[in-house]
């Protein structure tokens, strides 16, 4: 099973929030989400936690694509503009450092017009065990 298939099947929180991985390779990963009414905050724009969840899924796909279980240990998000109901968001994570223990990535979340919504940097801790459910790697 690929990391894309595995995370789309097992990351229930991301799936329940409408997030899905559509691309993964050793250098980048892409996750998408359409902003729905349930993503909106009191200001009638997409809630920051929904944006973070989308970016975090892309980070997880990229950091875990090599088959070793990797958890996020530090992430920072910078909100640049608002996302609105109906926007189709794309989170593209790119590898900054694929260190064997402490990988780091950058994520750009954009809308359907390629407008930057937020920027996320992430760092992970890579364990020496295989991803549960994908032990053959």
Task: List its traits.
Thiol Ester Dehydrase, Chain A; 6-stranded antiparallel β-sheet; alpha+beta; 137 residues; 3 helices; 22% helix; globular
Question: How does this model look, in words?
Answer:
The protein is built from 3 helices and 6 strands, in the order ααββαββββ. The chain has 137 residues and is an alpha+beta fold. The protein has one domain: Hotdog Thioesterase (Thiol Ester Dehydrase, Chain A, Roll). It has a 6-stranded antiparallel beta sheet. It is globular. The chain starts with a helix and ends in a 7-residue tail after the last strand. The mean pLDDT is 95.
What's the number of helices?
Answer: 3
What is the arithmetic mean of pLDDT?
95
Q: Look at the structure and give the CATH class.
A: Alpha Beta
- Largest sheet data: 6 strands, antiparallel
Span of the ends, CA to CA: 9 Å
Uncertain ranges: none
User: What is the global morphology?
Assistant: globular
Would you tell me which CATH topology applies? Answer: Thiol Ester Dehydrase, Chain A
Offer a concise description of the structure.
This protein has 137 residues and is of the alpha+beta class. It has helices at 3-10, 12-16, 48-64, and strands at residues 20-24, 28-34, 68-79, 88-97, 104-110, 116-130.
Task: Walk me through the topology.
Elements (H helix, E strand, L loop, with lengths): L2 H8 L1 H5 L3 E5 L3 E7 L13 H17 L3 E12 L8 E10 L6 E7 L5 E15 L7
Antiparallel strand pairs: 1-2, 2-4, 3-6, 4-5, 5-6
